[in-house]
């Protein structure tokens, strides 16, 4: 039984790897200029760009770390989404039309136009430092997950995942990254649904026991409107504090602005 499960795991990994290579190869064939490489020729469908933005924000931290935090904090953890939703609305109304009108490739081009090359270089360096630190954590968590079901050690898993990501992104450019993000999001959602179904199937009381725990009067309520700024999470800290962070990610981070 375990051997069959391991074989299925490897088949899924192999099919995913083949799909990523095919996406990168197809995107590379369509590249005729630097704009095609960096911006997908500005011809990518809006819906896949939207999925890519969500997939960029939904990382291995979201899948592995936030689930644990949600388990310990309860439904109040979802209050942070109030800030994220508010930030996305601001970006769509104010930032998106502005950047689209400028026809720029990076957010740092605007900083150079507005404040000079020094501001562009400084902001770009800060962005690279932040991305390297963030991507390192993402890579480690992804490699840990890969090591669990492939029996590879974590160091080898890091090399496998890192090399695969570098190849398809460097060869295919933004077009490959966006379409691969869509594929990854589909796999993540499929995995989440499958995990929920399997867990509910293994619980002695099934969904009924889950709902009994959710409706327990001793559990914290799903929302907390206490204005005390030292409490976390509350609706107000989620809306204001997390909203500012989400605004910086969605409105100024190159990974979102480029899309």
Give the percentage of residues in beta strands: under 5%
Helix content, binned percent: over 70%
**Tally of strands:** 0
Task: Give the CA-CA distance, first to last residue.
Answer: 43 Å
Overall shape: it is globular
Gyration radius (Cα, Å) is: 21 Å
Derived structural class: mainly alpha
**Topology as H/E string?**
HHHHHHHHHHH
Mean of all residue-level pLDDT scores = 81
- Quickly count the helices: 11
Largest sheet: none
Oligomer: single chain
Low-pLDDT stretches are none
Short précis:
It is globular and about 60 Å long.
Describe the 3D structure.
This protein has helices at residues 2-29, 34-39, 46-57, 60-73, 80-102, 107-115, 117-150, 154-202, 206-214, 235-251, 254-257. The protein is mainly α and 259 residues long. It starts with a helix and ends with a helix. 19% of the residues are buried. The model has no long low-confidence stretch (mean pLDDT 81).
Can you lay out the helices and strands and say which pair or pack?
Layout (H helix, E strand, L loop, with lengths): L1 H28 L4 H6 L6 H12 L2 H14 L6 H23 L4 H9 L1 H34 L3 H49 L3 H9 L20 H17 L2 H4 L2
Helix pairs in contact: 1-8, 3-8, 5-10, 6-7, 7-8
Features:
single chain; 259 residues; mainly alpha
